[in-house]
Design goal:
Elements (H helix, E strand, L loop, with lengths): L8 H6 L2 E8 L5 E8 L8 E7 L7 E2 L11 E2 L5 E6 L2 E6 L6 E2 L7 E6 L5 E7 L4 H9 L13 E7 L5 E3 L7 E7 L6 E6 L4 H4 L4 E5 L6 E6 L5 E8 L2 E9 L8 E7 L10 E2 L7 E8 L2 E9 L2 E8 L4 E9 L3 E5 L6 E7 L2 E8 L5 E3 L14 E8 L5 E8 L10 E7 L20 H5 L4 E6 L8 H5 L8 H15 L3 E11 L1 H12 L5 E5 L5 H7 L3 H9 L11 H4 L13 E6 L8 H12 L4 E6 L9 H19 L22
Parallel strand pairs: 31-32, 31-33, 33-34, 34-35, 35-36
Antiparallel strand pairs: 1-2, 2-3, 3-4, 5-6, 6-7, 7-8, 9-10, 10-11, 11-12, 13-14, 14-15, 15-16, 17-18, 18-19, 19-20, 21-22, 22-23, 23-24, 25-26, 26-27, 27-28, 29-30, 30-32
Length: 659
Amino acid sequence: MTERTSTSLAELIVDSVAPRFPAISPDGCAVAYAASTIGVRERPASTLWLASADGSAPSRRLTEGTGRYGAPRWAPDSASLFFTAGGQLHRIPVGGGETETLTSWASGIAGQLPLADGRTVAVIAEDEPDAEDERREAEGDDAEVWGERVPFARLRLLDLGSGELRVVDQLGDRHVVHMAQRPDGGPLAVVSWSSPDIDPGLSTAELHVVDPVSGAVHDLGPAGPDASSPAWWAADDGWHLAYLTTTPPGTVGGSAVLDVAVPEAGPAAEHRNLTADTVVCPTELVQAADGPPLALFADGLDTALFRLDPRDLRFRRLFSRQGIVHALSVSGSGGTIAVMAGTAHEPKDVHAGSPEGALARVSDTRPQLRDVVWGSQERLSYKASDGLALDGLLLLPPGRSREDGPFPLITIVHGGPYGRYADEFQFHIDLPPGQWFAAAGYAVFLPNPRGGEGHGHPFAAMAAGAAGGAEWTDITEGIDLLIAEGVADPDRLGIGGWSHGGYMAAWAVGQTDRFKAAVMGAGVSDWGMLAATGEWGPANEAGVSGSVGWEGPGPHPHDRVSPISYASRIRTPVLILHGEHDTNVPIGQAVLFHRALRHFGVEHEFVTYPREGHMIGERGHLLDLLRRTRAWFDRRLGSPGAGSPGQDGRPVDGQGKPA
């Protein structure tokens, strides 16, 4: 590692700039993307950049870093970009020129899609406040009756010539969340919810076809939980719509691509599952103008790009790439794509190229990270006691190998449970990234227990009603394997995670005393309380835990899998971390666990982050998260050993002095 006198490794991580939202131009010649600092300061800021799709010229900045930009969208002629900032829609010519503000809508613009006619932009926006809203605010008469005065996000059409915003009122009181225009410039596919709230909105998705000229709406029926990414494609029997959803009929399981033939009139045909027999999981679906849609699939520790074959309605693999590939964008012809991709030792950047060939990096937002020597990363493959094939990752300290073990081991469990670790740079901040702990001298185990993404629907559906069951033994059996192989020191084990990973950390310390320290980040302590107060609602939470509590007198299935039920057993020191404004896993989950640990005299520390939601985003809070978690494990697992970075993240030599 090279010396850093003024910038610690923690600051290097938090202050690095990450690209987002790659969008390839319709003509396939250029890629636009946003870039923003990982750690948000007082005023969120990002910039828009433009890169040549073939990498022939360096990226150039289109805007100053004065706002937080939404995903850029290209005009049909590839001459300008539309984007949201400050809640309004803007347009900037890519050849040079001033940014034009297109809306002044009081409720803000939530989404936008330039249409093929070049004169219209479809936008998603709530109604503006009316006179009654203004009176209520002025008089403080703002009692809210649930179900009344609901802020539906409605589909509106912006006329670029007149500036008029016209609502598509035939959708009624439906909350619009996704849209896509047919490639020939025809109607829009729209996904809507019954409510802006995730519960029940997410489970009440419907699919519609909307004529942007007349405003006529043709309903295609329910679209399944978490429906998204509508994509048009032309078949021999006419136009079809494919989309992503959770594999029916349940709320817990792998994602699927469903498809429906779009009739000229009358009821829609059956929505068919095109991925029912796959052992991979679709993550993104994008339409291509001159052919069937492209899709990214989570494939174990890797990601694969597929194209739908219209002959047999099966997806054919085009290529596979290490780690997670996401944010797929396709040119008008379908001949060029852009994605976010990285490697095991390089963070994600924008890549572009042919969907059937090599992709070239066209952005370089974090070159300073190449000066750091990171820990080695090894793919793991093992079997659970019931024979189920599992995978994961092992990180070792920089310059160390298995032969240098045993190491103190920190196990970090991913969220979800429908999440996964892939063979990518472990740098993203959920619970602090694996490389942060590896740089301090720890071995890091990143398991992919059953219930996660990347091995098909049956693997993911094993999480249904089974929280804390076999997913837990999948993790412990991986730890046991690393101990047996001499990698992990059985007397220096730590565990942590965020969200569902935080649940698993809290669950772990109630089941065993083998861990010397644990970190519960935004974790679940009581599933019944989460079903009552979490934004995902009873159906989703009961789908994982088995019940919600109103089925009758307890004990209930969820009581048996709630960490709070085992608080009297806990002896392991626990660091509890939570955002004060978390609506996914409300902070009451952490307060309850804290009070139980205090009652039983368990050593613990309870830290809350003001203004933060489910994920931590402010710079000062991220720095605290990195340093506090490392210090927590350092004090309880012992010094990782000579040659590891010091507490501020700078490398040290064998005598503990800065290198």
